[in-house]
Write a structure and sequence with these properties.
alpha/beta, six-stranded mixed sheet
Length: about 190
């Protein structure tokens, strides 16, 4: 088990870190990009994991010289995701850490997903009522890599940012954690990288 005794709070990203939903999100993005004529690059899109959907559309517009409405594309992507009707599994290694430290430390989630999506997944997996804080894309003005998501989680948990450690699966999430003044442990392919 990872030794987190130097910290007072743990912040987990959700998609790809605690819940194995990145594959399904990538498929929803692939179908959405196909619908709107946006070039799809799996590796590039995975690197945008944690970025709110509307902001991802803005980034894609800029990258490819397009002018799609972020609201229209984001709504389509959400509809595609919901139509897939998948319930992603938990990632065992990070969920074990979640439960191991739960009695003694504050635990929060900072995700680039919309609140309704996060509530649905976390409630289904029995994690929602165990959290001290949940901050979603719906709750912030600036998504990752801006530090607002993680700073807000720390504030809601009542823990100083420098006393928090973040578990993340993307470079954008890592940057957000570092900008928030928090240590960060990366999770790649369901494995914690120390």
């Amino acid at each position: 088990m990872v030794d987190l005794s130097a910290y007072e709070g743990i912040v987990f990203d959700m998609d790809g870190t605690l819940i194995d939903s990145m594959g399904a999100h990538m498929e929803a993005w692939r179908l959405t990009c196909e619908e709107f004529g946006i070039p799809f690059d799996l590796q590039y899109m995975h690197g945008l994991g944690g970025v709110p959907t509307r902001k991802t559309v803005e980034i894609l517009n800029e990258k490819h010289g397009l002018t799609h409405s972020p609201d229209t594309v984001a709504l389509h992507k959400r509809n595609v995701w919901e139509a897939m009707d998948l319930m992603p599994e938990l990632i065992a290694e990070t969920v074990d850490i979640f439960h191991h430290y739960l009695p003694d430390m504050k635990v929060g989630i900072g995700t680039g997903s919309e609140r309704n999506h996060a509530l649905h997944l976390l409630d289904h997996h029995g994690l929602l009522d165990k959290l001290d804080a949940l901050v979603t894309a719906t709750d912030v003005t600036h998504g990752k890599p801006h530090p607002e998501t993680f700073l807000k989680v720390a504030e809601l948990m009542g823990v100083a940012p420098e006393k928090c450690v973040v578990f993340e699966d993307t470079e954008i999430g890592l940057e957000a954690a570092q900008r928030a003044g928090m240590d960060c442990i990366l999770v790649k392919d369901g494995k914690v990288r120390i």
